[in-house]
Amino acid sequence: MDPKTLINILVEISELEQLQLRASEQMNHNEELKFSLEELQAEYEADAAKAARDNEGTKVTVRSLENEIRQVSELLKVKNDLLVGLIDNRQVRAIKEEISSLKMRLDRLEDDTIELLNKQDKLKTEARESVGESISHGKKTKDRQEAMVRDSAELGRKNDNIKGEIKRLVGMLPSVEGRAVQQLMKKLDQAVVHHQDGACLGCFNQMPRQQAIVVDQGREVVRCPSCRRFLVHKSWN
Ligand SMILES: [Zn+2]
């Protein structure tokens, strides 16, 4: 096989390897995105659960305040009843003082309850919104994840085809180069790479200037002195 034909096959292999690499990267990216979407969804759900808990907590406090109001009101009624028919001035004063402090207590309790009821309205709205956000994000997450699964499956099929095509091209190479390419493929992500300003794009080591020129001319088969990958020019197509 003349070097030019051999190099052309290597160029094709290098193009396919790059496509394969990009597809794999996209698949990894999909996986990562899927994971971070799941994490985000868990945060939304935790927020919704916390909002629900806060809402429940206020409900309990409001109930206990209402109980206390009832008790104080009953006590107030009892004291007021006691006042009727009482003639001893000292006793009347004492009861009146009690009544006045009970009224103050009742006022405070009612203020606290109103404040809490306002807060409860806010918390209820927050809890409802939080659940809404969690559900809506959950739906979006599911849709995006399904799209990514489809995309990855498609990329997987594409990579299978590329793999088959690479295998076919490797089979066309003379046995020495064919075996070398196969061995490189076992160990490395790419067996055939380009160079950039004389730096091998497989291992990023600099090669002699003259060697880079030979690669660009495409007349001789060149291997990187450091990583032994085959070095080829970019496709001329
Ligand atoms: Zn190299």
How is this structure best described in words?
The structure is a single chain. The chain has about 240 residues and is mainly α. The chain has 4 helices and 5 strands. The chain has a domain at about 20-170: Helix Hairpins. α1 packs antiparallel against α2 (about 90-170). The longest helix is centred in the middle third of the chain and has 84 residues, at about 90-170. The mean pLDDT is about 95. The site of zinc ion has 8 residues, from loops. Zinc ion binds near residues 202, 224, 226 and 229.
Strand content: under 5%
Terminal CA distance reads 21 Å
Categorize the overall geometry: rod-shaped
Q: What is the succession of H and E elements?
A: HHHEEEHEE
Which architecture name of the domain at 18-172 does CATH use? Answer: Orthogonal Bundle
Per the CATH scheme, the topology name of the domain at 18-172 is Helix Hairpins
| Approximate helicity band | over 70%
Which radius of gyration do the C-alpha atoms yield?
40 Å
CATH class of the domain at 18-172: Mainly Alpha
What's the helix count? 4
Task: Give the strand tally.
Answer: 5
Bound molecule types: zinc ion
Tell me about the biggest sheet? 3 strands, mixed
Counting helices, strands and paired strands, the structural category is mainly alpha
Question: Any key phrases for this structure?
Answer:
single chain, binds zinc ion, two-stranded antiparallel sheet, 4 helices, mainly alpha, rod-shaped, 5 strands, 237 residues, Helix Hairpins
